Amino acid sequence: MKGFELNLNGRIVRGAFPTNSSIIISNKEEWISVLFGSISDDGSLSYDWLRTVMHSGDVLKIRFDDFDPDQLSEPKVTRFAENWDKELLEDYYRLKAELEKE
Known about the structure:
Layout: E1 2-8, E2 11-15, E3 22-28, E4 31-39, E5 45-53, E6 60-66, E7 76-79, H1 84-101
């Protein structure tokens, strides 16, 4: 299965999902964070292989490859609440309003 291998300071995590996988590197409020995950096709489940804050001197390597299923790391699976789309929409409008004020 095509997927990604992330090596963060020697800690190796491999993940793949049949339809989509994402690697997000974010700089928010002076924190650099890395998220490697996926969401199920119906949007009800979240799969996280890596979710961490980066520190000065950290080394992150990313490799794209074809992995056997037994080579993949076990993700943390989170089920979204039934009304998660409503909550996301409320967050969107709240954040949009904050940005428009700036």
